[in-house]
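Margin note: ligand = iron/sulfur cluster.
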Amino acid sequence: MAKHVVMFSSGAGSWAAARRVADQHGTEDLHLVFSDVKGDNPSPHAGEDQDNYRFLRQAAWDIGAPLVWLNEGRDVWKVFEDNRFLGNTRLANCSKFLKQQPARAWLEENCDPADTTVYVGIDWSESHRLPAIERGYAPYKALAPLCDPPYLDKDDILEDLRQRGIKPPRLYEMGFAHANCGGFCVRSGQAQFKRLLEKMPERYAYHEQKEQNLRTFLGKDIAILRNRKGGTTKPLTLREFREQLQADQINVDPYDIGGCGCFVEEENAA
Ligand code: SF4
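Resulting structure:
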């Protein structure tokens, strides 16, 4: 029998993708795979936002398929420390070690490529990522149901959720474009970090300190963000970025959101 596996991220897009798969193929051999990035870190700022964990359970219950909950054991900062590399918008080693590899290991242990299809939650606006997704999941067949019509935007999906009685993750209401990693993602742009500082200053402070600790640990001038002033590119720490924002010394491009490529990019971080 054909097996269907949805990479379930705790965001609205993967719920919508799973909804389509369930409507089309049923739930008899459907599995929702969630890779938790919290590890064993008890901090409320590690892993997903608390409300994402609520959404995750509710969304899986709505789909009616088993939720496979993976946890590699580390959080993103432990990966950066162990790997001696701070993930950033170009290379997110956290995604590779905490999401892609555990999910891949589960697939290889539990699913035969001959009869398994893997689904990811990207939509039509990200369809340029499909070739990388297909390469990344080979020899498994990989599909992105939201790249097919009827085309939905995020507001359509959030409305669908509400109509089914499911409250979307609170991060969307707070204006975050992506709900992954509690509104903190190393792939984010300056606009998303500005929002994190405004909406969740404690979480921003947590990651600001973690970045400082890693800089000290590695003894390197590294940062998630980049300062591109004056035609040169230099690391811009979360501390510097906050100080510049508070002193009104930086203009943030409101479209510099960035994104999360968890599950959908090929990562080559060592
Ligand atoms: S959401 Fe961002 S920070 Fe979190 S694991 Fe994925 S790439 Fe890394």
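The radius of gyration is 19 Å.
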